Structure formats: structure tokens, C-alpha cells
Amino acid sequence: MGESADLREPILERAPRSGRGCLARTSGLLRGISRSFSSVKNTFTSLFVTIRTLIVKEPAKTIHSFKMGLALSLAFLLVMLKQPYSVIGSHAIWAVMTVVVVFEFGVGATLSKGLNRGAGTLGAGILAVILGQFARICGHVAYPIVVGLCVFVVGGVVTFTRLLPSWKTYEFGFRTFLITFSLIMVAEYRQGDPVDTAINRFIIILIGAGIGLSVNIFVLPLWAGDELHDSIVKNFESVADSLEVCVDEYLKGTVLERVPSKIFMGLAADDPVYKGYRTALVSASKEESLASFAVWEPPHGRFMKYWWKYPWQQYYPWPQYQKVGAVLRHCTYSVVALHGCLRSAIQAPLPVRLLFETELRDVSLQSANVLRELGKQVKNMQKGDPMEILNGVKHSVERLQQSLYLNSYLLVKQEGFEDGMPENLSLKVLPELKKYEKRDNQNGFFRSGSVHKMGIAYSHDEASEESRKYFRKLNSWPYRPIDDFDFAKDSLLEQRVRVLESASALSLGTFATLLMEVALRLDYVVEAVDELSDMAKFKCSNEKSVHGKNLNGTEDMVLTAQENC
């Protein structure tokens, strides 16, 4: 009995351990299944949120997908219904392929591809039948040689023509031409019935193109002209916002990190200034394609009245929209340079920036107002006065130029001069000190005996003591006092510090100059919009003059609407 008890004891001890292990494995398995279900649930939730966001933000893509499915379903009826299939046969697949190939996002692109495909098929069919008959006339021996020679010549000539820049619009038609020509020549050589093949293919392609065009035009149409029009308006708003944010951040003294790699590569980045002008910079190819597709579109929407009033015109001036976008990008490049100054390693001290805050902010505000007003004119298809719209910008630029001229000496670091001035002395009065200037036109400073140190040449052999105690004249700056050439007496470290301080202050001049360049380039933008309004026959605005106050409190006219254009 004792031995049996001893034998049972390990079994009794092992049983609970085995039960605990099985329970642990079951619990781990359940946790793994739970995690898997949770992961699948999160994946589907994320996918659902992404799809919902895409549908809400970009409904045009959803509409295009729906229309594509509808067009394919209609094309498949040729295969599924007995009566059409008994007539068309296996050639019905060409209708489905045509729908897939020609069905594009916009009506213009679909019309362009459909007409190119139809013209290419018809031309290739006629040429293949003619060349096939000519090869048969040449005799049984020369027949394969003539066919091969014709294929070689036609393929080379068509490909070379397709590569010409002036024929770029018809590239898809040339590709279709080569495909159809090759198929019919094969049918001519092996089956001996090229006419039937050409006719069947052409009819089926017409059916497929007709299905695609009908669905694209009559079911929630997406017009390339509308998209181009809205894109130009959006670019005006984006560049205006970018300009205002850039100047505002500069005057706040915002310190930014080095330029991210995404900006170098032209990708989207979390930078409010970059987000604004990037839209305008990357839209060149989009505007080119939209303008080329819009030419194919029939009169529609807001552009319908143009053809009713001017039926003798060939087409709406879509290429002029492309020109407006190009000129706007030319102006945007200066905004990009301003953004570079904002991220530069050499920055002017904030107190120096604030000395010109009123003028800088006024120029940016007036320039942004002009951009928004031009975008509004294009959006509403109204014509403004190009002479009056720039008045506010011109006045603000003149004030900034005058302020830079009067206070330019502040952009050059100099110790003795600033220390000797009262703190409450108005900056507008400081240039009056030029009346104490002592010139010595007969004795030049830089004639001989120059001493070179740190790359700076100076001489005081022929400089009078009286002149060196007061001011000397620079080539491109107002008169400023000299410090008795103390720069050469400083240590190497002190010289480098003074040079760095001077360069930092001078960076403000670079920023102000680029801002004025943005304002001056608006002339080209206004001219391009005015040409568009004349060519597209925009209506004349009958509203009263709109005025805007600048930061100095004076009124500048932003836009004067014309009663009679």
C-alpha cells in the first residue's frame, strides 16, 4: 500500500501541472486570435476612413469610377446579348478594349482619345487595303518582299512623325494607326480578307468610342475647361497666402530649421509658406494637359455664352490660361526666394527688421490683395482696369524704397556711430547728418599705399584728417561715418564678428529687395490677365471703386471698376 501510494504521488502531482500548461496555451491562443481580430478590425477601419475621406474631399474621382463601371457594363452587353453577338462575334472584345483605352477623367481627354483612335483606325485601314492590293499586283514572288518593305516604311515614317513636337497632341492616334495597320496587313497576308477585317474593326471601335463618349458627356460630366479655370483661381489664392505668411513670419523673427529634404525634392512638406506656392509651381504640366484637352470640348457651362456671342471664333482661348499660369509662376519664383531668406542661416536682428515693419508689411499686403483681386476677376470672368489695380502696390513700393534709402546706414554695423546717438533720436532725422559731410574730391582714399588684411583694401596716405573724422561716400549707399579705420586695429576674432554682424544686417536689404521684386513682377501678371479678359470677352464690372487702407493709415485704390470697358 505504501509503494502504491508512492507511485500515485508523482501522477497526482503532475496532473495539475499538465492542466495549468494546457490552460496557459489556450489562453495564449485566445489572446493571439483576439489580437488578430483587433488588427484586422483596425485595418478595415483605417481603410474605411481613407475611402470616406477620399470620397468627401475628391468626389470627382468617385464619379469617374462610377462612370467607368457603367461604360464597361454597357460595352459587355454586346457580348452577353445573343443578337449583337451573333452579328459581331468575337470582334466584340474590341468595343470593351476601346472603352478601357479612351475613357479618361475629363470629357476633353475622352473626346481627344476617341477621335484619335477613330481617325487612326480609319486611316490605317484604308492604307493597309491599298498597300495589300498593290503587293498582290507585284506577283507571287515579290509579294512578301513588298509587304515587308511597306511595313518597314510605314512604321518608320509614322513613328518619326509621332515624335515631332507639333504632332504631340495626336500621339495616341499614331499608335492606334500602327496597331491597326499591322493587324490588317497580317489578315491580308494570311487570311486574304483585309477589307472585312478593316470594316469590322472600325465599326466595333466606333461603337466602343460612342459608349465611352456618351457616358462621359451625359452622365455627370467632368470638364477639363472648368478644372483649368478653377486651378488658375486657386493658384492666385495660394500664392497670395504664401506671400503674406512669409512676410509675417519674417517680421515675427521666427527661427526655422534647415530646409527639409522634402522641399528639395518638391514633395509636400509641413510648411505653410511652402504649401502655398508649391501648388502653383507643380501645376505647369497639369495646366498644359488641361489646356490641350479643353480645346476638344464642346461649349458648356459658364463658357457657353462665348460661342453664342462670338460663333465665328474657332475656340475659347484656353492657351491664354496656360500663359497666365506661367506668368504667375514667374512671380512665384520671387516668393520662393523670400522663403529662402526666411530659412537662411544669416538673419537680420529682430530690432532691425521691426524698423521697416510698416513698409514691408504694407508691400506684402498690397501685393496679396492684387493677387486675390486678379483671381477674383478670373473666377467671376470680369474685366478690371489694369492701370488702377496696381496703384496701391506702386505707392507701397515707393515708401519702402524711400525708407531703405533714408535708413540704409543702419544695415552696416558700426560701433562708434550708434553709441554716440541719443536713443530717442528719430530714425527719419538721422540722414540729416549728411550736411556735415566733408568731401575731398581732389584727394581720393584708394589711390596708393593700400594695406590688405582679411581681404579688405584700405589706405590713408592721401586722406585728409578732417575727412576721416566725419563721413565718406560709398558707391551704392548714403553717406556714413568712418571709424578712423579701426577695423584694421581689431583682432582677427573681432574682425570676423563685425563682418558677421554687418552681413546679418545686410540680409534685411536682400529680403526687402526680393519683396519689391514680387510687387514689380505683378505687372506681368496683370497684363496676362488683361489679355485673357480681352480674348475671352469677360464682362465689364459695374461696381464702384474699391479702396483699401495701408498700414500708414492712408488710402490706396486697389481696384476701380469700369463703367464702360
Automatic annotation (TrEMBL):
It is found in: Membrane. It is a multi-pass membrane protein. It comes from the Eukaryota. The keyword Chaperone does not apply. The chain crosses the membrane at residues 66-85, 91-111, 118-135, 141-160, 172-190, 202-224. GO terms for biological process: malate transport; monoatomic ion transmembrane transport. Keywords: Ion channel, Ion transport, Membrane, Transmembrane, Transmembrane helix, Transport. It holds the Pfam family ALMT. Its main location: membrane. GO terms for cellular component: membrane. Belongs to the aromatic acid exporter (TC 2.A.85) family. This is Aluminum-activated malate transporter.
